[in-house]
Amino acid sequence: MTNIQNLARRIRSGEYPRVEVDVDHFFDEYGNPLRDTRVQVRDHDRDIDRIDRAVDKMQASGDTSKIEDLTLIRFPLDQIKLLNGSHTAEMTYILKQRGIDVKPSKGCIVDFERDLGGKLSNALALGNALNEIEVEKGDVQDNDIRKHLFQILDEKIEDGLEPRLTDTEKDEFIRLYPRISRATIGQWISYRDDIGGRREPLINYTAGALQVQKTALENLTQYKDYVVLEPRTLSAALETGVEQAFRRMQEFNKRKCLVVLYCKTRAMQDSWENGQEERIQDEYVSLSEYYDVTIEYQMLRYE
């Protein structure tokens, strides 16, 4: 882990070699991020609001000089994935699509075997080390540190070892994350299953992003005769979801309603995948038939 800190220092200082990077490689033909071209360091996905604000600001000012370099990993079979700079890559991609003159992206390509010892846990450690900087730009969070810890434990299990850290490993982990104590590590390990249920899903929707999703659904031809509700968490599907469906249909004099749902935690995601969707579907169908209306739902993508 000490070598990871040194590697992060070399990347930040500019000592590590840079090469030109084509950010188009990380997006599909419609501009959506390709998940298999990046290493998911953070415990949540992109902040769409932050990307839009930065792009609009750079487009208005014409100043793209603050776009930072990327960090990538070269895996076996010459497969290259984005480690650090997912938001930066998307900002650059959008600016290019808008016809803005942007300097070619630069990046450091770290070798998975040579520099990271062939361990995904070291890749996560490097990503966190690069995110934890003096200037706030989506600083490393406790969930990101827990994810790194759990990856170490998973690798120990795969190697047939006990899922615990030695005293030396704990000291190295604390050196990497000074705000974490031995007690914190022990607590996270002892409650690993519970923490796994409470973590946020990979896609973290801000209020602005939820509004964008609602507007997109309203603009679909298939929902032109529907009232589309404000997105709400899965736990509200059979409560305010039902109540607001009838209120809004009456308010807008329509007989069709779309309830938009999203998962705010991993526990909600697990519930959705283990029977909750069927319960919601049965309830909505039953209410629709009894009151001679149409109540449907859409679950926003959570991973």
Helix fraction by DSSP (H/I, runs of at least 4):
40-55%
Q: Determine the strand fraction and express it as a percent band.
A: 5-15%
Shape: globular
Strand order of the largest sheet: 1-4-2-3
Count the strands?
8
The poorly predicted ranges are 133-138, 194-198
What is the makeup of the main sheet? Answer: 4 strands, mixed
Tally of distinct domains: 3
Mean pLDDT: 85
Number of DSSP helices? 11
The helix/strand class is alpha/beta
Supply Rg.
23 Å
Distance between the termini: 29 Å
What's the helix-strand series?
Answer: HEHEEHEHHHHHHEEHEHE
Describe the fold and architecture:
With 303 residues, the chain is of the alpha/beta class. It folds into 3 domains: 2-131, no CATH class; 141-199; 207-299, no CATH class. Helices cover 47% and strands 13% of the residues. It is built from 11 helices and 8 strands. It has helices at 2-13, 48-61, 86-97, 120-131, 142-158, 167-176, 182-190, 192-198, 207-218, 240-251, 266-291; strands spanning 19-21, 70-75, 79-84, 105-111, 227-228, 232-233, 256-262, 294-299. It has a 4-stranded mixed beta sheet. Strands 5, 6, 7 and 8 form a 4-stranded parallel beta sheet that branches. The two termini are 29 Å apart. Residues 133-138 and 194-198 have low confidence and may be disordered.
Question: Features of this protein?
Answer:
single chain, 303 residues, alpha/beta, 4-stranded parallel beta sheet, 11 helices
